[in-house]
Structure formats: structure tokens, C-alpha cells
């Protein structure tokens, strides 16, 4: 399996952002990619740094014009695409949504981001309703795709349920970066993020792909470092922190079976003892 990661720096020009994503898809496909993942909300600058009602104009229906553009790119290059969109579902109802386009251009699946953050310059709760699709595996002609989005990557429950649904690879379109004024925390913030991704691969015996933004947008400097982890936690490829990059990573899906038969975490799960996970707190 060959996976393409398209890490970009966005500007205020939607046309330019879409064009660079399409160029990245073409470059990855030319290098042999069979599945290509874009970063979170790739068509524009990250919209959630302030609570701005004008930003809702950036949203569109799914399927819609941007889905159609991705579908045509998938069809013309014969690749599966994982894209991330600002979805307008209805009047006043919006989602942060991942779409999966099969290699024939058809819409294979839609996943709405389940965990919605609210942090300085990440005011997503103002914009997005929590997803209601549940955690899923999307069957495509190339791969069983496990779509998740950014803040989902901090939750072991999300990774576990997506793997249990049959996903062979977890895909995390992402927008995460360093905030000016927090420089003493930058290293530990990045290393915590990277460690969580690696842990999902090990704990679930799956491949993990995270595609992050790069570049500066206001006081946020997105830290790039898009990455692929194997089921045993091996880092297969990592993009630079501070530059756009299109990279293709090849891996053997047989490693899933190899890891799960040697580290049988699914076999040994105590499903009779986990009821309290359905509570907010156990006391």
C-alpha cells in the first residue's frame, strides 16, 4: 500500500489553496500513491481563531462543489482521497467533516468530527456541532479507511472504536500548531501529540497517518511534521515542521496481522469490565 500525505501552508486565497492541494494529489499519484490524505480544512486558512459569524460563508454542503472537485481528482488520478471540509448541513448547523472519495470519484463515506475543541485560537465549538456519524471504517477499492479529524487524535476510545470497525489505517487530517507566547511549552506540546499518534498504532495494531498544516496564520504556527506510524510503533516517514511537503509512504498491510498475533491486545480486552467508560466520571 502506498499512501500520499499532502502537507500545505494555506493563504487567504481559496483558489490557491485548492490548487496546491490538487497539485499535491497529482504529485503523490505520480509517485505511486494509491490513497492520498489532505490536511484539515485544506481549502482555506484555519477559520476558528476568532468567533466570526462571517466565516460561516466559507461552509458548503456535502456533497457540493468542493466534494465534486475532489471526486474528479480521485477519478482522474485513480486514487482514494481523504479530504476535510467545513460542512454546511442546514441553516445554522455546521460540521468539521472528512469525506472519502473512492478511486472512481464516488463519495464512499462521510465522517463528522466527533470531538470538538474550545481553546485559545481553536474556537471550534462556536462553528461546529459534534459529529453524529459515529466511528467507522469506510470500505474503498484500495483500503479500509478509518477517518478521524484532529482533536479526535487525543482520544484512545476513538482510535479503538475505529479500529474495531475494521479500519486498516487511521487517517487524521489535522490543524495543530504552536501559539506565540507559549514557547517554553512548544517541545512538550509537539512530543505529546506525536506520542499519542504512535500509541494509537501500537494499541490497535493499525497504521496511523496524520497530515498536519504548516506555516504561520496569525499567532499560530502550525508545526507540520505529518507522519505515518506502523502497527508496532515504527515511524515510517515524517515531514518537516516548517515547509510544505508531499510525501509517499509504502507499507505492507500484512504487518497488521503480524502485530496483532504477537501483541494480542484485542484478544485480551476485558469487555465485561468497561461499563464505566460510558460515564462522564466513575464517582
Protein traits:
15 strands, single chain, Nitrilase/N-carbamoyl-D-aminoacid amidohydrolase, 6-stranded mixed β-sheet, 283 residues, alpha/beta
Please tell me about this protein's structure.
The chain has 283 residues and is of the alpha/beta class. It contains 6 helices and 15 strands. It has a single domain, classed as 4-Layer Sandwich (Nitrilase/N-carbamoyl-D-aminoacid amidohydrolase).
Question: Low-confidence spans: pLDDT under 50, at least 5 residues?
Answer: none
Q: Over all CA atoms, what is the radius of gyration?
A: 18 Å
Side-by-side strand order of the widest sheet? 5-4-3-2-1-15
**By CATH's scheme, which homologous superfamily applies?**
Carbon-nitrogen hydrolase
* Alpha carbon gap, first and last residue: 46 Å
Q: Count all strands and give the number.
A: 15
CATH class: Alpha Beta
For the sheet with most strands, the description reads: 6 strands, mixed
Number of domains: 1
- What is the overall shape? globular
Return the CATH architecture: 4-Layer Sandwich
Helical segment tally?
6
Fold-level CATH name: Nitrilase/N-carbamoyl-D-aminoacid amidohydrolase
Helix-strand string:
EHEHEEEHEEHEEHEEEEEEH
**Structural category:** alpha/beta
Amino acid at each position: 500500500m502506498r499512501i500520499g500525505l499532502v502537507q500545505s501552508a494555506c493563504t487567504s486565497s481559496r483558489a490557491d489553496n485548492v490548487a496546491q492541494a490538487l497539485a499535491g494529489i497529482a504529485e503523490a499519484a505520480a509517485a505511486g500513491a494509491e490513497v492520498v490524505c489532505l490536511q484539515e480544512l485544506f481549502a482555506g486558512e484555519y477559520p476558528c481563531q476568532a468567533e466570526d459569524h462571517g466565516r460561516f460563508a466559507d461552509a458548503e454542503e456535502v456533497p457540493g462543489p468542493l466534494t465534486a472537485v475532489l471526486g474528479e481528482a480521485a477519478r482522474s488520478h485513480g486514487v482514494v482521497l481523504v479530504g476535510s471540509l467545513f460542512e454546511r448541513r442546514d441553516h445554522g448547523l455546521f460540521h468539521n467533516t472528512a469525506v472519502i472519495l473512492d478511486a472512481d470519484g464516488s463519495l464512499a463515506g462521510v465522517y463528522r468530527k466527533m470531538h470538538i475543541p474550545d481553546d485559545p485560537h481553536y474556537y471550534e465549538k462556536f462553528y461546529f456541532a459534534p459529529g453524529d456519524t459515529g466511528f467507522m471504517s469506510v470500505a474503498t477499492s484500495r483500503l479500509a479507511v478509518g477517518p478521524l479529524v484532529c482533536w479526535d487524535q487525543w482520544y484512545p476510545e476513538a482510535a479503538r472504536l475505529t479500529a474495531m470497525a475494521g479500519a486498516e489505517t487511521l487517517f487524521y487530517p489535522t490543524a495543530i500548531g504552536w501559539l506565540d507566547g507559549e514557547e517554553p511549552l512548544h517541545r512538550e506540546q509537539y512530543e505529546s501529540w506525536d506520542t499519542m499518534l504512535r500509541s494509537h498504532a501500537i494499541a490497535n495494531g493499525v497504521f496511523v497517518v496524520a497530515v498536519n498544516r504548516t506555516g504561520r496564520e496569525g499567532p499560530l504556527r502550525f508545526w507540520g511534521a505529518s507522519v505515518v506510524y506502523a502497527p508496532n510503533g515504527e515511524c515510517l516517514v515524517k515531514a518537516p515542521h516548517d515547509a510544505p511537503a508531499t510525501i509517499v509512504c509504502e507499507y505492507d498491510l500484512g504487518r497488521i496481522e503480524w502485530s496483532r498475533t504477537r501483541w494480542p491486545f484485542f484478544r485480551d480486552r476485558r469487555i465485561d469490565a468497561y461499563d464505566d467508560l460510558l460515564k462522564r466520571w466513575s464517582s
